[in-house]
Amino acid sequence: MGNSDGPPSYPVTDAICPFYIEKHSRVQTSFGISLHLVVDLDSDCRNQSPGILSEADTVAENPPVMPTKIAVVYYSMYGHIRQIALEVKKGLESAGCEVTFLKVPETLPDEVLAKMGAPGIGAEDEVATADKLTEYDGIMFGIPTRFGMAAAQMKAFMDSTGGLWQKGALVGKPAGIFFSTGTQNGGQETTALTFLTQLTHHGMVFVPLGYTNPIMFDLKEPHGGSPYGCGTLAGADGSRQPSDIEKELAVTHGSHFGKIAAKLTAK
To answer: Which residues form the Flavodoxin-like domain (predicted)?
Structure first.
């Protein structure tokens, strides 16, 4: 201890539990690791059993991991977007996320919907309201396209989030987009690009699909989706249903989004 030419030397004690170590001692643990410890022998530590931690200590060292809560906010008149949403959900859940579907309110009157042959999709899902968005760690938006842009129902919903914008309530939350168009060149990317303005003004963090799945390069058959997000082609009359490729890309996007969201929201 009095040697001024080098670091102080301490007695070496073999022990499994540090509660039995002298003050300022170096411990040679059972794992062969030397640790410098400072132990107050006047504390309650001396009453602990060697090598045993209490349940409270274990919980404190290993707090329960809460799942990342993701809202899938969607509008679907004929069901294509909701089908893709179900695949996105699979991907999110594979990444350990807790998923809730929030259905954007309809703006068209029932008589108009009846003439359009709209079957009424997602009656079992919660109705989306602006205030609910703050309850989630991240949000994925399912958007049908109308003339190369988001459907009016989704736009009306986003217009209702002005109060959240004023408070910065969505700043930093991860956000993703998936979409449906009637034709292969019906505006999937323009829908994504024009919807990005909504996310940007809220200060959200856009998480696209990118090229995270090699099937993006598959040109054997027409399919929806782009680097901006997964998607589907509904056909001009809505008769086409999501293909296996589109479903796979939706699962990939959900999984990718879930992993990124978990990192961004890690406590």
So the answer is: 70-257
